[in-house]
Structures are given as structure tokens and as C-alpha cells.
Amino acid sequence: MTRILCETFDTYAILTLNKPARRNVLGTQTALDLQTHLAALAEDDTCRAVILTGAGKGFCAGSDLRELAALDLDGRVAHEAATAAAVRAISAHPVPVIAAVEGHALGGGFVLATACDLVVTGCLARWSMPEVPKGFFPPWGMAPLLARVGPARAQLIVLGIEELSGEDAVKAGVADQLSWDEKALDSAKGAAKRIALLPESAARKVKGFFGPDMAARAEAMDARASALFAEDCDGPAARETFARFRR
User: Fold this and answer.
1) Residues of the chain below pLDDT 50
2) Fewer CB atoms < 10 Å away: N or C end of the chain?
3) What dotted CATH number matches 4-182?
């Protein structure tokens, strides 16, 4: 199965995480494929915006814990580093990237969406970060979350003690636009078409001005988060989590 579907239209492209049976989890190869597609679209002068969405009934359930559970500590750190690099490529991309979120955005899926320049969410989408209750610090993605909601709210979200609906996510600043359920992709397409109507040079300069700063801060914060994640991997709660996914 193709892990990432790429559809190109006159002025925008749609990248679809394509593991619906596994809730579009992010494995190492999926992350690498995402980075490859983003790099190719960055070279396409006709592409004025990129939409990122998920196949089936949800956006993304985060990192592939089944894959992580089968690895040793170094492998787990490398696995998450590959995903972190792919997500930073969203900030580094020359055109806006729009997330279209339906169903669920969990853990890494949550922060993957927040890394996008515009986030459209269905009303009943489920947003949560379950990493800390599972025993480990989220290994990447803190910079865009902080940029969106600030440190006080980000801390509560990362603790995993609250679950947000689509409406809650917009109110918190996690997402930007609310859509009817099953209409998030349509809303994202409308946004991509509006972006395409802007003067190209000026629109690209907006992303060029803000994106590199976000990517640089994200790289430094991802390194810190990765070290904390590595420390937690040997803790009893994390070991129990990984043991469940090895069964």
C-alpha cells in the first residue's frame, strides 16, 4: 500500500496519510515518504499550497507504537527523529501547508497538524496527546504547539489530561477554522484556492519570512524533547506500554 497519496491539481496538492486500518500512524517510512513528497512539491512552481489530510475516518493517531515497541532505545530515538525532520519540513516548505483534520488527531497527529500553517478541523474531531499517560515525553513537535497556544495551555495539553473537540481546538488556538464534519477537506481546498489567488511572490515571502524561524526553533526543541523521551523509554510506564504493543 502507498503510505502517502499525492494528488496534484492546477494550483495545489493534497497529501493523504494512507494507513486507514492503522489510523494513519506515523512509521519511519511514512515519515520519510512525507518528507520526499514535500521536497518534490517545493520544486513545483505551479503548487501554491499543500493540503495534508488522512485517509478513512481520521487524520492521524501519532507514532506507530507497534513499530517503536520492536526497536531498542537507539532505534526508537532514530524512529522519532525521522518523523521530527519530516514535520519540520512543513515549516521549511515555501508555500502554506493546510491540515484538514477529521475524526482524530492524537499524539504525534495532534502536533503534526499544529505544525501546518492553517488547520481546519471537523466539529466532532478528537484532539488529545496521550504520550505522558503512556509513560513518555512527546519526542518532537513542541515548538509549533507553543507558538499556537503558549506555554501554560501547552503544558496542560501535553499532560494529556484533556481531550478537545474540534470546537474546543479552535477556541484554544490549536486549530484555525471549524468545519462541518466530513467537510474539513472541502474547506481546506477552498483555502488553498484563495491562497492561489494571491500575488505569488508576496504570498511566498510570507511563508519565507515566518517559516525558517519556526523550523530553527523546532529543531532545537525537538533535540531537547528527544533526550527527555529517551530517558523515559526505560521507565516502568513506558516499558508497560511498549510491552502491550509487542503482543
Assistant:
1) none
2) C
3) 3.90.226.10
